[in-house]
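tool_call: predict_structure(chain=1)
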Amino acid sequence: MAKTRIIVALSGASGIVYGIRLLEAARELGLETDLIMTDLAARMIGIETSLEPDQVNALATRVHDSFDFTSPLASGGIRHQGMVVIPCSMKTVAGIACGFSDNLLLRAADCTLKERRPLVLVPRETPLSAIHLRNMLTLAEAGAVILPACPGFYHRPRNIQGLVDHVVGKVFDILGIEHQLYRKWREGETT
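tool_result:
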């Protein structure tokens, strides 16, 4: 039986820790990951973490250059459970919404949408302009799931890691992947 395969794309928005944690958790769960990292995402790793881009690349099963249009991810024929753009910059949202596939991340997202596979976008921007909202509405109408990096608190996170894990767990929920990243809400439960 083939392993579950997901495409993970890191764009140049703040919140790169979400994408790194998704890669770590995917590895812990035994998932295959195809990573696309934009140049600005690589810079964000240095700005927001103590890691190097190569350390993040090492978390993935396969790494694809963000300008390699010969990558299998540039084809709709590749089989995968879904694609996640985490974090997702507003530039990336706009590019996907307009079908402007000038890099592999945008092309893979376009293929994911046209093949009717799950596309999860995790924007990390605030406040949102009317342009941002229109672009996200266009994508939601096209079948993408817009999952803002807005962690819940019902699971009583004890630290930032608990907040990050909640968002990553929500991504796995959308993709139908079982995990233990946060305690799920239970009907009738009170604190």
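agent: The two ends are 41 Å apart (CA to CA). Proceeding to next step.
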